[in-house]
Write a structure and sequence with these properties.
Shape: globular
Radius of gyration: 21 Å
Number of strands: 22
Structural class: alpha+beta
Bound molecules: flavin-adenine dinucleotide
Oligomer: single chain
Distance between the termini: 57 Å
Helix content: 25-40%
Largest sheet: 7 strands, mixed
Number of helices: 12
Strand content: 15-25%
Length: 454
């Protein structure tokens, strides 16, 4: 059936405000981008569709930072610093940060409370004089010409409004702003399939003594339950781990597919709707199984997050696309702006496949080139976070929070440098950017001493 259209009359859109830098999206990348631009003295607005910050980390209930650390020749080091360090310190002061824990015996991750993350992020942005606009859904752009964004249109409770800025940073995770502006992008692997989404949830009321290290025994219990025919699981490699309070555990267990088995596409409204509903059903199934695990008998679902967890949608094509080989080969780049120590983590049909750089032979992290942040075609735009310029395999690693903080921080600082030098982001002097990032505590790889401690 041909698509039907409704004519929408042209209208004048009120100007919400004019800024030097506008950041769309308040996840790890957007938080760091806004802080870095504002800290450099630029009038900065961060726009977020929800009423809180954290992105997938809060809105999708992730509750765990990956990619802050690397396994450097067998020794754990926290390689993502800078704005991430400031944020972690604030979460910690609120009592909301776990000590890092070992995943698969090879790499560290660090759990947190979502409430503490939200409050700490508000506080961090306020401390750096970032202007924030919550409950504002980016909905389109007005272009000056093919290469320049004039304004970002946002839908708010007060109706549609326009945000003017000299430089825009797309940290929407989905590359919304870049796509509206006409920047090229890719979707999925060679067959168009994206990483599968998951509905995260958290349980409370667990008996920590009886549960013990249940994350070690749960995979075998799942296999037994499958063999006995009492339960069926959408994927292997379930992750069930304690939060800061050991009576509360997070559950990363589900996998959302379309009827044809392909991953739910996070850009398709009907698929997202199905994903949310199926996700909650799968959460309930998983809960029913988990109550059979010793220590979990009396637990209950304390949180089903506001949205389905989307791992991958658009990946923008920029000056360089970070690849899976770069991750496994611990690649170095002249224009490095930060690093990623997380392995490839591919959420494929029915499973999660991790691929690490060689341990302990390798240094365990790859550098992130500035060119990942500069999209083709559009001149007053940077893109940071999980929608930055990466291949499907590269994104499976560098999409996690740590490298997203690093990319965001570099994008914000780069926007400020471009404004200061009256140039476009793609043409700034990257050595100046690198110097500034290092002065502010970021670790970029190259010859810089690897930070000690966790
Ligand atoms: C189920 C699941 C489990 C994961 N587990 C982990 C883990 O354990 N550790 C880890 O580090 N990472 C994990 N990740 C990955 C990680 O959470 C994300 O990749 C990371 O948050 C990406 O950061 P980002 O800033 O690029 O984008 P996001 O976190 O996606 O943030 C984007 C922000 O932009 C906002 N936004 C989007 N579009 C618009 C719009 N049009 N208008 C206004 N606002 C908009 C969103 O509301 C959101 O706040 C997981 C992801 C999923 C889905």
């Amino acid at each position: 059936m041909p698509a039907k259209f409704i004519e929408e009359p042209a209208r004048q859109v009120p100007l919400y405000g004019e800024y030097e830098v506008a950041v769309l999206g308040g996840g790890p990348a957007g938080i760091a981008a806004a802080v870095a631009a504002a800290r450099a003295g630029r009038r900065t607005l961060l726009i977020e569709r929800y009423g809180f910050l954290g992105g997938m980390g809060t809105a999708a209930g992730v509750t765990n930072f990956c990619g802050l650390h690397a396994n450097v020749h067998g020794e754990m080091r926290r390689v993502v610093q800078g704005v991430a360090t400031e944020l972690l310190a604030r979460i910690d002061r609120l009592g909301g940060l776990n000590a890092p824990h070992l995943i698969l015996g090879k790499i560290l991750a660090q759990a947190y409370d979502t409430a503490a993350y939200k409050i700490a992020a508000d506080d961090l942005l306020a401390a750096h004089n970032v202007n924030v606009l919550f409950h504002a859904l980016g909905a389109g752009v007005a272009m000056h010409d093919d290469k320049h964004i004039h304004a970002l249109m946002v839908e708010t409770r007060a109706g549609r409004q326009a945000v003017r800025a000299e430089i825009f940073i797309d940290c929407s995770g989905d590359g919304d702003l870049a796509a509206w502006a006409g920047a090229p992008y890719e979707l999925g692997d060679n067959n168009g399939s994206m990483l599968y989404p998951s509905m995260m949830f958290r349980l409370n009321g667990i008996d920590p003594e009886r549960a013990g290290e249940a994350w070690r025994t749960i995979p075998a219990l799942m296999e037994q339950a499958e063999a006995a025919g009492t339960h069926h699981f959408p994927r292997k490699a379930a992750i069930v781990r304690p939060q800061r309070s050991s009576i509360e555990w997070r559950v990363n267990f589900t996998q959302l597919a379309r009827a044809d088995g392909a991953a739910i596409n996070g850009l398709e409204p009907d698929e997202l709707t199905r994903g949310e509903i199926d996700g909650r059903r799968q959460a309930l199934d998983a809960y029913n199984f988990l109550r059979t695990v010793p220590g979990f008998e009396k637990c209950y679902i304390v949180d089903l997050p506001p949205q389905l967890g989307i791992r991958e949608t658009r990946r923008i094509v920029g000056g360089y696309m970070l690849s899976g080989e770069d991750v496994l080969g611990c690649a170095a780049f002249e224009d490095t702006i930060g690093v990623n120590g997380w392995p490839m983590e591919s959420h494929v049909a029915g499973d999660v496949i991790f691929k690490f750089p060689p341990i302990p032979q390798s240094r365990g992290f790859n550098e992130l080139p500035y060119r990942m942040l500069t999209p083709e075609r559009v001149d007053n735009l940077l893109v940071a976070g999980r929608c930055a310029s990466m291949t499907h395999d590269g994104q499976s690693a560098a999409r996690v929070s740590g490298p997203c903080f690093a990319m965001g921080e570099a994008a914000g600082a780069a926007a400020a440098l471009a404004l200061g030098g009256n140039t476009i982001p793609r043409e700034i002097a990257v050595d100046k950017l690198q110097l500034q990032l290092q002065e502010q505590g970021a670790f970029l790889g190259q010859d810089q001493a690897i930070p000690k401690g966790l």
